[in-house]
Amino acid sequence: MPQLLGLKPKQQSKPVNKCSLDFILSKDEIISKPALLPSFPWTSPQRGSSNKTFAPILAPPSGPCKFAKRRRLLNISVSNGSTKVSAKAGKALASGSVVKKGSKYCMVDGCMSRAKHARRCWRHGGSVKCKIPDCTNRAKTKGVCWSHGGGTLCSFRDCTTISVSNGVCWAHGGGKRCAMDGCARPAYERTDHLCTLHFEEKQYIAQVHSITTQCHHKHTC
């Protein structure tokens, strides 16, 4: 390459041992400068005969290159009884699985219900009581419950019943339905998503099973 550019090849100098006695006693100051690649004229074929010269380019340094490594963020989890809470904000680890928990959920640890008031769900005191004296029902709209005129009316024609969900009342398809097959009765969260009849039946079966287990345990002992 230097012969094609009309340059004389530079003789390679012998490596200097800076630990030798000759180098220490020498008065010549040796300043190491980075080697420069030769610059040469270059003519652009698109723009005629305008001469352009490349700027000197530093030769790549010798030796192994070192690249800075980025530190990975560690997500340290702290165990608190049966519930694991992550140190990273906005996440909670319930039974080992990562669950997103934002401001829409109840602030109580381990509860994944939707927050209603003051960042708490109905079970943990997040509901507002009806403002009518001696009424313990939850307020829906205007500070009163359904019994005292709270909520919105059903959107079905000529229906004066309070709507439950999707703008309609229970009779017109609003609200939750019983989880039992073939049952279309209204269901609630407090009754394990069952209607009142099937919830009472479930409680009765559980009570009979508990009594039978206790009697069997006494006879065995």
TrEMBL record:
Q: Which residues cross the membrane?
A: none
One short Pfam family name for this protein?
Answer: Zf_WRKY19
| Classification via InterPro entries | Znf_WRKY19
Q: Which residues form the WRKY19-like zinc finger domain?
A: 129-150, 151-174
Q: What is this protein called?
A: WRKY19-like zinc finger domain-containing protein
- What organism is listed for this UniProt entry? Hyaloperonospora arabidopsidis (strain Emoy2)
